[in-house]
Specification:
6 helices; globular; 11 strands; seven-stranded mixed sheet; alpha/beta; single chain
């Protein structure tokens, strides 16, 4: 199984790296892809992450899941990327998994892909999820879409992505190994 995490200048680092860590621990091949012309991508809090590849140099057709971390202005940069929109459309047409968190579900919403699906996002972006039934939940999986509400949803959306790629038992085991909610 293979997942691509798309990084744009101004992304929210917790929303990208917590799910990355969960998927990596679940033995999913995870590739960080910069949508800009540099492998170095700076988060909304000034943390620079080195991506594995550039979108312009990467064939994403072998992926099983595409994930968009939110944050601002990162989500706007994702929404403005025509090459990314092309990849998203291909994933949608092929029925592959499309995930996004925080403000980033607006990318799918603006493209009309969430029409008729349940989804969640960061408050104040609900109107961008065109045609979706917007739920006030941490994480929502409906059809081929997985959406999360914000940075605090990193573990929930990471777990959901791991579950659809490698199964519930593995996803749950990874979170237990990470000591997530073990004392509650």
């Amino acid at each position: 199984m293979k997942a691509y995490i798309m990084l744009a200048e101004g992304f929210e680092e917790a929303e990208a790296l917590v799910p990355f860590d969960i998927l990596f621990r679940a033995r999913v091949e995870v590739v960080l892809v910069s949508i800009s012309d540099s492998l170095n991508v700076t988060s909304s809090h000034g943390v620079t992450v080195v991506a594995n590849s550039l979108l312009s140099d990467t064939d994403l057709s072998d992926g099983d899941l595409l994930f968009l971390p939110g944050g601002m202005p990162g989500s706007n940069h994702l929404a403005e990327s025509e090459p990314l929109a092309k990849v998203i459309s291909e994933y949608a047409e092929q029925g592959k998994w499309l995930a996004a968190v925080c403000a980033a579900p607006m990318v799918y919403g603006r493209m009309g892909l969430l029409n008729g699906y349940k989804a969640t996002c960061y408050p104040k972006f609900e109107d961008q999820l065109l045609g979706a039934e917007v739920l006030q939940k941490t994480c929502v999986r409906d059809g081929q879409f997985i959406t999360g509400c914000g940075a605090g949803a990193g573990f929930a959306i990471g777990r959901e992505m791991a579950e659809v790629l490698v199964g519930k038992d593995t996803a749950d085991a990874v979170l237990r190994q990470m000591m997530f909610n073990v004392y509650e």
